[in-house]
Amino acid sequence: MMIEKIRKILKDHGRLNKDPWALDEAADLYQAGMTSHASVNVMLALEGEFEIEFPDHLLKRSVFESMGAMRDTIAGLTKGS
Amino acid sequence: MTSSATPLYFGPPERPLFGWLHRASAASSLGVVVCNPFGYEAICSHRSLRHFCEAAAAAGFPALRFDYDGTGDSAGDDRDPARLAAWVKSVHHAVDLVRRAGEVERVVLVGVRLGAMVATLAAVERDDLAGLVAIAPVVAGKGHLRELRALQMALNRPPTPSDVVVEEGVQEALGFPLTADTKSAISAVDLTKLAARPAPAVLLIERDDLPASDAWPERLTAQDVAVDRLRLPGYTEMMLGAQDAQVPEAMVAATTDWLRSRVASSSVATATAAPSAARPPATASAPAAHARFTPAGDPSRTVEERAEFIDADRRLFGIVSTIATPPASRKGLLLLNAGSVHHIGSNRLYVTLARRWAALGHVVLRLDISGIGDSRPRPGQPENIVYTDDASADIAAALGFLRRQPGVVEVHALGLCSGGYNAFKAAVAGVPLDGVVLINPLTFFYKPGMPLEAAPHLVTSEASRYARRMYSFDAWKKLLRGDVKLDALARVMVRRVGLVARGRARALARQAGIKIGDDLALELQDVTRKKIALRFLFAAGDPGVSLLKTQGGATVDKLRRQGQLGIDVIDGADHTFTPLWSHPLVIASLAAHLDGPPLARK
Predict the structure, then answer these.
(1) What's the number of domains chain A is made of?
(2) Which residue of B has its CA nearest to A13?
(3) Nearest-neighbour CA in chain A from B172: distance (Å)
(4) Confidence band for B479, pLDDT divided at 50, 70 and 90
(5) In this structure, is residue B246 part of a structural domain?
(6) Position A51 in a domain
(7) Model confidence at B508, in pLDDT bands (50, 70, 90)?
(8) A61 CB near a chain B CB, below 8 Å?
């Protein structure tokens, strides 16, 4: 379910050169065309969708590198909330 | 741009501000001041903001776009103290100028991103504004700084070399510094907490790709502001990078429509010219086409800058930097656009270089070639075309202009990426000059319509990436698992082999006296034979390094040994030298080559 929402956000904001539904959860999104600017838009959209705020120590490229990495990070941030 | 746009300096004589006033053809009571976003976004949106002003002027409203204190072509830099306050003060000077020079009674501020915040902060200090247009506004400074941090970390730059000095307390924002003082000032601003209203009417144009917040418009409405809200496409596309950025036509049209229908015809009363207590004292001088820039505490380094059209058609625009009493003999240095980045250069490096060289006695022209930045395209040509055969003619005109400046006996052209390429091609085409510096060129043989993804530099860099990966255990695991696209790998490696093979075939043909097209070695020989000094500056990972070796072959080493060609490499930087620590290294490399007096061989 969470991955579906992430895919939808990537479709709207990721500016990928591939359909997010055709990508593996571990696929490198930067290799799939996501720019630095697009990754920040993805971050902002994820924050809105999941009502979270990525703390400074998680503002790093690896967190937004793949759908799986995003899911794990969001799961960690929403745990217990 | 319209022919009625005038470049000018205004504001305090000791801290001149630079801007363009787009005059309307008929008298109007309403004028517009456009407030830039910060840093990299200001570069990306430069062309778009010109379109905003042209549209406003065409609709009958004189419009000013300008650079805040310490930014663009204005005096100072981002490391000066009290930046946010200085930017707000700059807006006041801009409003006063439009009222005076545009001969209007009322002014509307149009601010983009951080510019919307700066415009709002200025607006609440005055009571004579008719309206405010806030485009994708930064409402909370703290959140914006966080976005800039995220963006910076997403850049995936190589690790900072251990031997470079990193400034303490400075946040790096895509090539521009935010000092601790600036961060603290921006961080403290929340537009929803402002006590005063900015203007009687506000048009809020929100980006359509992210959820909107109601907090600020609700606050404005409670302050008796007539708020119009629109969600329009165009923000992301406006900030794609200078070359790919698209003018947000829907936003331009909506702004002009709002000015016409909501503000110009409005009977909403605003105060007249009476200044409020918070406004700066009227220290401004009359607008001028030139200005003096004196670094703090160092009058000996005072530089004069002039905004000039250098051709009879008033198409080619540039900023000339010089000193009041030039030496008997000096160099003329021409800085050429890096891609579509206007004449301030990537990370505003061209402004730093120009003022530095001018202070040493040289005369420097930072030029926009036709259709880029503030130079109009040639008749019938579209704007924003980077690689064009016409560039050589522009460069010839610019070098002719430099040679006519007092004391100039030697001229050099330099530029990053396409700027270096265009300078080199001008030399190949026979434009007379004494030296060329190419900084991170991406190709040596651009073909019209050549898609960037097929450019030779990508073949070279991708091949290098695959070659590096051949020694990686993880990469082999991926290959065996079937996770690697073999067709892509094969395609890249075949093209790489093709490039190398073509290079060797050319070398053989050259030895046999046969000329083959697109022969870089031949062009290098030709240029150095004309006594033109060649210099290359590369970021270590940039593709130009290997491209030069692949296409230039043994000629490169031969010319190096003969002292006719020099190569400098900076480790750990990127294509546009975004890291702040790399800027002094770029300047040092260029300084070593160009600081000295001319060789006086004329």
Answers:
(1) 1
(2) B209
(3) 14
(4) very low
(5) yes
(6) yes
(7) low
(8) yes
CB proximity list for B54: less than 8 A, separation 6 or greater: B1, B2, B5, B22, B63
* Chain B hits for A36, Cβ within 8 Å: 151, 154-156
The first and second tokens of residue B115, run together, are 């510019």
pLDDT at A81: 58
A51 Cβ under 8 Å from any chain B Cβ: no
- What six digits make up the tokens of B120? 């709002």
Interface touch A45/B150, C-beta < 8 Å? no
**Contact call for B153 and A12, based on CB within 8 A:** no
Domain that holds residue A10: 2-15+25-78
Contact B154 A41 (CB under 8 A): no
Give the CATH number of the domain where residue A74 resides.
1.10.1200.10
| Cβ-Cβ contacts under 8 Å, A44 against chain B | 147, 210
Q: Are B33 and B95 in contact (CB under 8 A)?
A: yes
**Using the beta-carbon criterion (under 8 Å), do A59 and B209 form an inter-chain contact?**
no
CB A48 within 8 Å of CB B210: yes
Give the tens place of pLDDT for each residue, B522-532.
Answer: 999 999 999 99
Tens digits of residue pLDDT in B182-191: 999 999 999 9
Which residues from B are below 8 Å from A40, CB to CB?
A: 147, 150-151, 154
User: What's the average model confidence in pLDDT over B280-298?
Assistant: 73
CB-defined contacts A:B, below 8 A: 44
Contact B153 A59 (CB under 8 A): yes
Is B22 within 8 Å of B71 (Cβ atoms)? no
B471 pLDDT higher than 70 = no
Q: Whose CA is closest to B330, among B303, B298, B362, B353? A: B362
Question: Across residues B96-106, what is the average pLDDT?
Answer: 90
Q: How many domains does chain B have?
A: 2
Strands (E), B11-62: 17-22, 30-35
Measured distance CA(B344)–CA(B596) in Å, rounded:
23
Whether A3 has its CB under 8 Å from any CB of chain B: the answer is no
Sign of the Cα pseudo-torsion (B206, B207, B208, B214, in order): negative
Q: How far is B553 from chain A (nearest CA, A)?
A: 31
A22 touches chain B (CB under 8 A): no
User: What distance in Å separates the CA atoms of residue A38 and residue A6, rounded to the nearest whole number?
Assistant: 14
